[in-house]
Amino acid sequence: MTLFVDMDEVIADTYWAHIELYNQEFGEQLTLEECYGKEVWQCVPQERQESVRKHATRNGFFSMLKPIEGSQQILEQLVKHYDLYIASAAMQYPNSLKEKSDWLDDFFPFINWKNRILCGDKHILKGDILIDDRSYNLKNFNGRSLLFTSPHNVHSNGFERVNSWHEVAGKLI
Ligand SMILES: [Mg+2]
């Protein structure tokens, strides 16, 4: 079985990084809970939104991300059961390609480079299972779609939801 796994907000914690950078630069105390149902840039005053929206274009942004809890341990198990590919729409931020590749080397060294798809639109993916936090990726997928919970999608319906990597393990192993 072919299993595709997204990066941002599935194995890499971008919300933490956006909030951390925003709080550092503006001396604020924005919390994750304040971002439920929204993008981080939507949670800040209008004159600061452009700054937050451009975080991902900065050199080093994707290098600073923390792995999502449990992702390393569970993916290390899943690679034994599935033809597993990391699938990230990395071309949205061309600067991210090298950083994402290095980040995978650091935190997911057991995923071979041949199993890393840094792509454009994910509709090109054909396989059995896709784990992603964005409903626009899941709705175009022809296999089983698992919505990985992220602050922005807590109110989304219509997909099989997984709240953590331990829940993924319960369903897929
Ligand atoms: Mg994502």
Summarize the structure.
With 173 residues, this protein is of the alpha/beta class. The chain has 6 helices and 6 strands, in the order βαααβαββαββα.
Give your account of this protein's structure.
The chain has helices spanning 14-26, 46-53, 71-81, 96-107, 135-138, 165-172; strands spanning 2-5, 83-88, 116-118, 129-132, 144-148, 160-162. It starts with a strand and ends with a helix. The protein has six helices and six strands, in the order E-H-H-H-E-H-E-E-H-E-E-H. The model has no long low-confidence stretch (mean pLDDT 97). The protein folds into two domains: 2-12 and 66-172, Rossmann fold; 14-57, no CATH class. By secondary structure, the chain is an alpha/beta fold. The site of magnesium ion has 7 residues, from loops.
Question: In terms of topology, how is this protein built?
Answer:
Elements: E1 2-5, H1 14-26, H2 46-53, H3 71-81, E2 83-88, H4 96-107, E3 116-118, E4 129-132, H5 135-138, E5 144-148, E6 160-162, H6 165-172
Parallel strand pairs: 1-2, 1-4, 2-3, 4-5, 5-6
Which class best fits the helix and strand makeup?
A: alpha/beta
> What is the percent of helical residues?
25-40%
Q: Bound small molecules, which ones?
A: magnesium ion
Q: Beta-strand percentage? A: 5-15%
User: What's the CATH superfamily of the largest domain, by name?
Assistant: HAD superfamily/HAD-like
Question: How big is the Rg?
Answer: 16 Å
Instruction: Give the distance, in angstroms, between the N- and C-terminal Cα atoms.
Output: 12 Å
Number of DSSP strands? 6
Quote the average pLDDT: 97
CATH topology value of the largest domain: Rossmann fold
Based on the coordinates given, report the CATH architecture of the largest domain: 3-Layer(aba) Sandwich
Provide the succession of SSEs: EHHHEHEEHEEH
Largest sheet: 6 strands, parallel
The total tally of domains equals 2
CATH class of the largest domain: Alpha Beta
Which strands sit side by side, in order, in the main sheet? 3-2-1-4-5-6
Low-confidence stretches: none
Shape: globular
